[in-house]
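Section 4.2 – Deliverable D4.2 (structural model, holo form)

The reporting period included a commitment to supply a predicted holo structure for the target in complex with magnesium ion. Inputs used:
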Amino acid sequence: MLGAKNLSHSFDYDLFQNIDIELKPKTTTAILGVSGSGKSTLLHVLSSFLPPQSGVVEYNGHNIYSLPNSELVNLRKNDFGIIFQSHYLFRGFSAKENLEVSSILTGEPIDEELSKKFGVAHVLSQPISTLSGGQQQRISIVRVLTKKPKIIFADEPTGNLDKTSAAEVMSTIFEYIEQNDAALLCVTHDENLAFSCDSVFRLERNAIIRLK
Ligand SMILES: Nc1ncnc2c1ncn2[C@@H]1O[C@H](COP(=O)(O)OP(=O)(O)O)[C@@H](O)[C@H]1O
Ligand SMILES: [Mg+2]
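Output (structure tokens):
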């Protein structure tokens, strides 16, 4: 589904070099690394937002960075779902209106069950600003899943949640992956979260090491 070969990227210094990674349907992959190791940068490269300085990222056999603009837009809109560390919800709107944005853009209906599964069905009419950090994070995840993405890229998806809620949220995401033939790539510094995925890598000193 997604394959990256020989990815290298540096800013003032080398961040990572010659990284290969492959995401297949119904699989979950985590990348561990300390703060500043380049996890978010790698996620941006894999998810079409930052062209790598060398190497290729292929989605279904096509280099995503050579796609015509219209196809890139469709890829981001329909196939790739990104759960950001800072969730970028529309603050002046209700939780439900935030989900509607996703639904209007992609034509996928709002799935009431998803909000229930993530424990936010009862706060849908509330303005985003009145929700707790954890509820905002859950709404941002429901918003991403509403568009039925084929690959979910998640940057510290449970950063605002306590241990029990984090485990619940991850198991609901895993269920989505299994039921929709999707794939998850998750970057995190949380070992527990990482080892709940099928494959685990660590980004360290420019290289990627397989741990599981
Ligand atoms: N656009 C940029 N320009 C220059 N340096 C950057 C840029 N983005 C990130 N960095 C640097 O790259 C390093 C890795 O950042 P990041 O990928 O955010 O790491 P992580 O997500 O693992 O904490 C950091 O030292 C950061 O300051
Ligand atoms: Mg980061």
